[in-house]
Each structure stands twice: as structure tokens, then as C-alpha cells.
Write a structure and sequence with these properties.
About 25% of the residues lie in helices and about 20% in strands. It has a five-stranded antiparallel beta sheet with strand order 1-2-3-5-4, covered by helices on one side. With about 120 residues, the protein is an alpha+beta fold. The longest helix has 17 residues. The protein is built from three helices and five strands, in the order αβββαβαβ. The structure holds adenosine monophosphate.
Length: about 120
């Protein structure tokens, strides 16, 4: 995998506030939160820089990222009020870390998004 700051978090080379882990997925708090709850979910083993690099064989992993976020939200009591999941792909979406990741945003009503 092309190494990124998230690779260092997976290997515990730099600190992170890890709030979720299973065999395939790590979840940790975003260092610059955009909502009261802002957690990033990343694959621990597969080398996928962006969603555009994902292939049919990655379908299960992409599903597991979503289900990990949903499980975390349920566990933390966020599911009833609701939440948003976002995956940025490359420049126009503002992707800055090229290790595929899913943002979970929750904890308050969220503003609109998606306009330039
Ligand atoms: P994106 O813009 O979709 O690539 O999201 C990358 C996210 O990673 C941003 O929201 C950053 O705040 C977050 N981030 C960068 N470095 C760290 C770090 N060391 N620990 C936690 N979150 C980070």
C-alpha cells in the first residue's frame, strides 16, 4: 500500500483516538472534526487510494466500511437521530489522504453540502 498518515495510524506509529476496530476496519476520530462526532473508517489491509481505484472485488470491503460506520453509530446511540457518511474522491471533493476512508458525521443537525 502506498503509505499515508493512515498507514502510520494502522501500525500504531502515530497516535489516534481509535474508537472502532474489527478484523478489516479501523475507526478513529478525525483530527479536525467537522461535526460533534466525526469518525473515519478505513480498511486495514487493502491498498485502495480512492474510490475510483476500487474494483468489483472490493465490493465486500466497501460494504464493510459502511456497516462498520452504521454499527458504531448504533453502539454510540447516534442512529436514532441520524448521521451522514461521506467518501471524498480526489481533488474536486477535497480528498487529502489517499487511503480510502469513510467519514461519519453526527451529533447535531448537519448543514447542506455538495455545492461549490
Ligand atoms: P479527506 O479530505 O476526505 O481526504 O479526509 C481526510 C481527513 O483526515 C480530514 O478530515 C483530516 O482532518 C483527517 N486527518 C488527517 N490526519 C489525521 C490524523 N493524524 N488523525 C486523524 N484524522 C486525520
Amino acid at each position: 500500500m502506498t503509505d499515508t498518515i493512515f498507514g502510520k495510524i494502522i501500525r500504531r506509529e502515530i497516535p489516534a483516538s481509535i474508537v472502532y476496530e474489527d478484523d478489516d476496519i479501523l475507526g478513529f476520530r478525525d483530527i479536525a472534526p467537522q461535526a460533534p462526532v466525526h469518525v473515519l473508517f478505513i480498511p486495514k489491509h487493502q491498498p485502495i487510494p480512492t474510490l475510483d481505484d476500487a474494483a468489483a472485488g472490493d465490493a465486500a470491503l466497501l460494504g464493510r466500511l459502511m456497516l462498520a460506520a452504521a454499527a458504531y453509530a448504533r453502539r454510540e446511540g447516534l442512529a436514532q437521530d441520524g448521521y451522514r457518511v461521506v467518501m471524498n474522491c480526489r481533488e474536486h471533493a477535497g480528498q487529502t489522504v489517499f487511503h480510502i476512508h469513510l467519514h461519519l458525521l453526527a451529533g447535531a443537525p448537519l448543514g447542506q453540502f455538495g455545492t461549490p
